[in-house]
Design brief:
59% helix; Four Helix Bundle (Hemerythrin (Met), subunit A); Beta-Lactamase; flat; five-stranded antiparallel β-sheet; alpha+beta; 5 domains
């Protein structure tokens, strides 16, 4: 025990820790006890609260079930709806479930009494009252129902509802009581906590008083002695505190006493040294003044060097012209300590940068840069300084006379031409010759920077030009160095490597750029070996390599060429060429040869076989007719095949002509359907017309070819029969036609290629059907020529729908169109150019009978003169005229080259089958002799209507007059 007391006496910190630890233990124990008591109260309350709330929940469910049952019973008796009756017994189950749950949660006698009464009521209500009332209601005995209600039914319900309300109120009272009990107990706990806090504060104050008493008095005595020492007062050894304490205070007092003795011993020595130091101080002050002057000079030089350094860095840190000029003028102003200045390049744009100048001053300087004082710079190419009186606009608030000094500096190129001129102004003082000479040296640095900048701009322009040229090349071009690092790449190559910009590939390593290409390709390892062999092994004899990109559906051919400079290999240029179309064309050619050979051989075999039978055997007439019919059908099939080839060739060469008139699609489709019905007995055709606006401007024969191809395809590709529906309807300003079948359908991946020449879906079911793959390509070209669109939707095994849309035209007559058409015909003037007198007379009679005014002419020259003179409404022109010098072609060319006559409709009437040439030269229609004269009247009338009523009678829907 004595050792422990000695241990604590030797250290004030240990004594303090002992007191604080004791206080902390007492505080923790007391706080923990109070907290545990508080937690016990809250836990008890929460448990009781949860029990009451659970019972309230079950009570509400029971009440809701009974109320719903009461409501359903009244509803059933009032409205006789079966769902109310069923709901009554559902609610009986809900009430029973609630009672069971409440019984499990019951804790008091009141709970059990309520459950017993509720069960008795439920048994009475659902077991006796409701069934009896329903039975009476359903038997029509309303009086009994009323009797049941009056003789206790309603009273028992009201009594139960009262009991329910009373029970719920008792639960609420229990909850309120538990809360009040909790509040009361918490108040007691809070009071105990406050008392505990006051006790802890009292204990803490006692500890503080003990510690203050133990350390306060000794420290005050030590502080008093320290203050005496600080004030140079005499302190004797007897004044020092003598204490027997073993703690820090005692040790501090002993140390203080020893320190005082040491100070007194050294004070005399310090006084002697002090006099010596004072003498040295005077000498140091003199040296300090000299050093300060040297420091100021060094700092001034440092600032000057800093400005020069900023000037040099401004020239070298950027290659942007405007940025460099701003740096030059700003840093030169700092070096010169000028108040304002300007630099102007002697180029066409007079590029400049200014410091401290107004926009007006800059504009004035640029306007007169080649006049006045500046001319000396161009003539002498030497700097000069000018002193002038400050203008009133420069004085500001100064009133006295002031002077400004301007220095003019030329920047000379290597050829001693003035590249730029510098002008700076200083109000503070003149420019010395040494300064001007120094500035001339700086202009040489400026000249070098400007030349470097010009060289960079030229290089950058050349680089951009080369990059632009590379980007215009369709192939992907990629130049890599000997280590495979990307050096130059064009936009096509960046797209191929799935990069948004070319900059993403700048300096990319082989692994970075090759990974993306190899991952896309279906020839990953082979392509990797090819690239490595060329880049790293220098294999320059490699043949071009072909790889596929399945995701992009592309076929790429890559070849490489090494790049040498001064006999040393610098790298490799790779060229990636998209050969997808060539690849597909090769494939289609192969398929085309196979398909055509099959399509041609099949009908030819039939023709040759049946012909041989007819030549070598005696056949009955009916047999001969059957064979001839087969030969005729196969010949028609060959003709259709050849016509498809010719149509495609004409469309591709742009020689396909169209005789467009306003035609009714319904009649065209009906004729096609009637023709196609002959080819099938298992298909049913339906034509759905959902609009009356079925007129289009088109070539009747070509439109018939379109629908023939589509409907025949629908028949072929639905081999099991089914419905073929043609639906005509409007969509916006378009007239749409759907051709729908219930056949095989088209795979999704085949839809984008469906209208490609010679393309056929790669499927055995369709291969057996046959075909050249030209029908849909012809459909697309014809529809496109009619300003239409074609689309397809399909689902495998369910059929396909081809949709064609044309510009919609409607009937809309203007005020002038209210007149009778015969009256318009009577005013129409037609000139017939025909050398056959009989045919000319026939045509004249036909046109006059139709109400036209007609004039005849035989020769070409006479025809041209008459047409120029009378400017008819239409011209009927024969090609082969008696006058050999001027043919019908010459007349046609002459009329179309004349601006005043080019608008006149021309109908060619000729025995020559040269429709394409006639339409190409500008003819509006082409009739091949012989033809019915009435056809000529209809054609002319149609043209006149189109010409005179364009935009009025037949107009696109979106341009219809209001």
């Amino acid at each position: 025990m004595e050792k422990m007391r000695s241990y604590f006496r030797q250290s004030f910190a240990r004594q303090f820790i002992l007191l604080v630890a004791s206080f902390f233990i007492i505080f923790v124990v007391g706080a923990t006890a109070l907290s545990m008591y508080q937690a016990t109260l809250v836990t008890s309350f929460e448990k009781k609260k949860n029990q009451i709330e659970m019972k309230m929940k079950y009570a509400q469910e029971i009440e809701q079930a009974f109320n719903q049952a009461f409501s359903d019973a009244r509803g059933y008796l009032a409205f006789n709806r079966k769902e109310f009756k069923l709901s009554i017994f559902r609610e009986q189950e809900n009430a029973q479930t609630g009672l069971d749950a409440l019984e499990l949660a019951a804790t008091t006698k009141d709970d059990k009494q309520f459950i017993l009464k509720a069960r008795q009521f439920a048994s009475y209500y659902f077991g006796d009252l409701v069934p009896e009332a329903i039975e009476a209601f359903e038997s029509g005995n309303i009086q009994k129902v009323l009797s049941l209600s009056e003789n206790g039914g309603t009273a028992s319900i009201e009594q139960f509802q009262f009991q329910m309300k009373t029970y719920k109120q008792s639960l609420n009272d229990q909850l309120d009581g538990a809360f009040r009990q909790l509040s009361k107990e918490q108040q007691i706990a809070q009071t105990a906590f406050i008392v505990f806090v006051f006790l802890m504060l009292f204990l803490l104050a006692a500890i503080a008083r003990i510690m203050t008493k133990k350390i306060g008095a000794p420290l005050r005595a030590l502080a008093h002695m320290a203050e005496k020492i600080a004030n140079d007062e005499q302190v004797h050894n007897n004044d020092v505190i003598h204490t027997a304490r073993e703690d820090e205070i005692g040790k501090l007092a002993q140390a203080f006493r020893k320190m005082l003795m040491s100070i007194q011993e050294k004070e005399e020595s310090l006084m002697a040294h002090n006099e010596e130091l004072l003498a040295q101080q005077d000498e140091l002050e003199v040296q300090q003044a000299e050093l300060e002057q040297a420091l100021e000079a060094m700092q001034a030089r440092e600032r000057e060097l800093e400005r020069y350094n900023d000037f040099i860095q401004g020239l070298s840190n950027s290659l942007d012209r405007q940025e460099v000029l701003h740096s030059i003028v700003f840093n030169m102003a700092r070096v010169m300590e000028a108040d304002r200045g300007m630099i102007v390049l002697m180029n066409e744009q007079k590029t400049y940068a200014a410091f401290g100048l107004s926009p007006y001053g800059v504009e004035q300087f640029l306007t007169y840069v080649y006049n006045g004082l500046h001319q000396r710079l161009f003539e002498q190419k030497k700097p000069f300084v000018l002193k002038r009186e400050v203008a009133a606009s420069e004085k500001g608030y100064h009133e006295e006379t002031m002077f400004v000094h301007d220095v003019f500096l030329p920047v000379l190129s290597n050829e001693s031409k003035v590249q730029a001129i510098l002008v700076f102004s200083r109000f503070g003082g003149p420019f010395s010759d040494e300064e001007v000479h120094e500035y001339v040296g700086l202009t040489k640095q400026i000249s070098i920077s400007l030349q470097k900048m010009e060289l960079y701009e030229q290089t950058e322009q050349a680089r951009e030009t080369v990059q632009h040229i590379l980007n215009t090349v369709q192939e992907g071009i990629h130049f890599v160095d000997r280590d495979g690092n990307s050096v130059i790449v064009n936009k096509q190559m960046a797209d191929l490597l799935q990069k948004e910009t070319i900059a993403e590939l700048g300096g990319a390593s082989y692994e970075q750029w090759a990974r993306g290409l190899i991952e896309q390709s279906d020839a990953g390892k082979t392509l990797c070996d090819y690239l490595r062999a060329i880049i790293f092994n220098g294999d320059e004899e490699r043949e071009p390599f072909v790889y596929h990109l399945p995701q992009k559906r592309k076929v790429i051919q890559v070849y490489a060429k090494p790049l040498y400079r001064n006999g040393e290999r610098q790298g490799t240029v790779f060229v990636h060429r998209d050969i997808t179309k060539e690849f597909e064309v090769d494939q289609m050619k192969s398929e085309f040869v196979s398909t055509v050979s099959h399509e041609l051989r099949t009908p030819l075999s039939s023709v040759l076989g049946f012909t041989e039978l007819m030549l070598t055997k005696e056949l009955k007439p009916e047999r001969q007719k059957k064979y001839l019919t087969t030969i005729y059908q196969e010949a028609k099939r060959l003709t259709a095949l050849i016509n498809d080839f010719l149509d495609v060739q004409r469309m591709e060469s742009g020689k396909q002509t169209y005789d467009k008139k306003y035609e009714d699609l319904v009649s065209i489709i009906e004729n096609v359907i009637e023709t196609q019905k002959v080819n099938t007995t298992i298909h049913q055709f339906r034509l759905q017309k959902e609009t009356d606006k079925t007129t289009v401007l088109g070539d009747r024969d070509k439109l018939a070819q379109v629908f023939t191809n589509l409907i025949s395809n629908a028949i072929k590709y639905s081999p099991d029969g089914g419905n073929i529906t043609v639906r005509i309807y409007e969509r916006g300003n378009r007239l749409c036609v759907d051709v729908q079948d219930e056949g095989l359908g088209i795979p999704e991946e085949a839809l984008p290629h469906l209208f490609t020449k010679f393309y056929r879906v790669d499927n055995s079911d369709r291969r057996r059907i046959g075909g050249t793959g030209l029908g849909l390509a012809i459909v697309k070209e014809i529809v496109k020529a009619h300003e239409g669109e074609v689309a397809v939707t399909s689902e495998l095994k369910k059929g396909s729908t081809f949709t064609i849309s044309f510009p919609l035209v409607v009937m809309a007559r203007s005020r002038e169109d209210e007149r009778d058409i015969d009256d318009k015909q009577a005013h129409a003037h037609v000139i017939i150019v025909e050398d056959d007198e009989n045919l000319a007379a026939l045509l004249e009679a036909e046109l006059k009978d139709s109400g036209f005014r007609v004039k005849l002419v035989k020769e070409g020259k006479e025809a041209i003169e008459l047409i120029q003179k009378e400017k008819p409404d239409a011209v009927v022109l024969d090609i082969m005229l008696e006058e050999h010098d001027v043919s019908g072609w010459d007349v046609l060319k002459e009329l179309k080259q004349n601006e005043e006559l080019a608008h006149i409709p021309i109908i060619i009437s000729s025995a020559l089958e040269e429709r394409e040439k006639g339409m190409a030269l500008g003819a509006n229609s082409y009739l091949v002799k012989p033809y019915q004269p009435s056809q000529l009247s209809k054609t002319i009338l149609q043209m006149l209507l189109n010409k005179e009523r364009q935009g009025e009678i037949f107009v696109p829907l979106n341009e219809e007059a209001n």
